[in-house]
Amino acid sequence: MILEKFRLDGKVALVTGSSRGLGQGAAVALAEAGADVALLDRTVPTETVALVEATGRRVHTVQRDLATATPAELDAAVAEVVEALGSVDVLVNNAGTIRRAPAAEHPTEDWDTVLTVNLDAVFHLSQAAGRRMLERGSGRIINVASMLSFQGGILVPGYAASKHAVAGLTKALANEWAGRGVNVNAVAPGYIATDNTAPIRADEARERTILERIPAGRWGMPADLQGTFVFLASDASAYVHGAIVPVDGGWLVR
Q1: CA distance 28 to 43
Q2: Which of 47, 186, 192, 253 has the CB geometry, 3.0–4.6 Å to 145, for a possible disulfide?
Q3: Tens digits of per-residue pLDDT, 142-193?
Q4: Does the annotation count 159 as an active-site position?
Q5: Given the DSSP bridges, would you call strands 90-93 and 139-144 parallel, antiparallel or unpaired?
Q6: 2-246 domain in CATH 3.40.50.720?
């Protein structure tokens, strides 16, 4: 039965940045599909833990700050999840940060922080989880890209550069790992009502301009991406490799 291919029973998913927004939505969706879930955050995401536990699935938390964690510390985080839950079958690289400032005055420290969290950590976690998946001959890595994986944005040079790079990294890993049983893909959210977009939504003129371009006529919600996360984590996407899947209300086709 086709719906059985979307089930994640017996799988373990590691989700970064899961305290709210897209990460919380992904963690809950994967748990509802049957996966046990590990949550990697700077602090314990208490609300998300409770939501996952309410599905009847196991949950484990790992505390790391992706802005400062070394590759060795991220590898140790993956090892901790394997020790606690038995494996890492699905990795969702969701955690990200954004800094807004004109490019000519963009602080170096903002550029460095954004690239460290949005790109370096994605690579090092993918490498750590990917090694184990390759040994096993199966696994799913889902990166969170962006509309700015396709466009340039305004006032966010570091974020745009990092999200273009996430798309490229997704394709590069897929080229190497697809034939070895590991699917690497990305979700590219459109304009979603999260903390990252709060400053834009607070600007009445900017928000109106954005809404006028979205064919769906509304901002997205974290729940709008849950089905895509489950699809890319499941056997239903067995022949999907290196895809950057927009979930954007039609933004890119306007």
Answers
A1: 18
A2: 186
A3: 999 999 999 999 999 999 999 999 999 999 999 999 999 999 999 999 999 9
A4: yes
A5: parallel
A6: yes
